[in-house]
Specification:
Layout lengths: L2 H22 L4 E3 L1 H9 L3 H8 L3 E4 H7 L3 H13 L2 E4 L6 H11 L10 H12 L3 E3 L3 H11 L2 E3 L1 H10 L5 H13 L9 H7 L6
Parallel strand pairs: 1-2, 1-4, 2-3, 4-5
């Protein structure tokens, strides 16, 4: 790696550390089914625990979706029992619940109907000043932009874990490959490609 690449890598790492410090001020991370299950399927939820213990929130709608797969529900329940994760709901008639209904039934012009899990996560992140964790960017993008919601994906989480020293790039590639093998939809073939696409210089 030449001096320019080393400097670029240092700048990237510093930027991610700043982002991480800002995110640490966020009290809650609202996960949708796809983002959380990417880690559950490959038994790597410990990464989430080390980054966000006690701040991981599942909307009730997401928890209900995960109940369809017993072994995933069991892993979620274990996290819940340890206090690393909690399941939260919205009260009928509240502003966040009305937003949720609109996104799932009668969106504004130019917006699209989205799934219950994604809609619940967006509504709760918006009204509770949290971060949305979702891989389904095609569906959530317009709402994330409209409501100026902080948003992370599986790839972002793995980068944060790498910069925190929890995993290496090689670990990330192994995890990424296993997620794809479990039919998780990810934007690139490898974690290294994702890193390059997000500003990491090629060695």
């Amino acid at each position: 790696m030449n001096c320019y690449s080393m400097l670029s890598a240092m700048i990237l790492r510093s930027a991610w550390m700043m982002i991480r410090k800002e995110r640490q001020l966020t009290k809650k991370y609202f996960f949708d089914t796809d983002c959380l299950s990417a880690f559950l399927w490959v038994r790597e939820e410990s990464i989430l625990v080390r980054l966000y213990a006690g701040k991981i929130i599942l909307p009730t709608q997401v928890y209900n979706e995960l109940q369809r797969v017993p072994h995933l529900q069991a892993r979620v329940d274990a996290l819940k029992n340890q206090g690393d994760l909690s399941v939260e709901s919205m009260e009928t008639g509240t502003a966040e619940y009305l937003d949720y209904l609109q996104m799932t039934a009668s969106p504004e012009d130019g917006m699209r109907i989205i799934g219950r899990g994604e809609a619940a996560g967006i509504a709760m992140a918006k009204h509770r000043d949290g971060t949305l964790a979702s891989n389904n960017f095609r569906d959530v993008r317009l709402y994330v932009e409209k409501y100026s919601i902080s948003h992370i994906t599986t790839g972002d989480i793995l980068i944060e874990a790498m910069n925190a020293g929890i995993i290496t790039e090689a670990d990330g590639n192994t995890i990424w490959a296993e997620m794809i093998r479990k039919r998780r939809m990810l934007p690139t073939t490898t974690f290294s490609e994702f890193l390059i696409a997000h500003g990491k210089p090629d060695a």
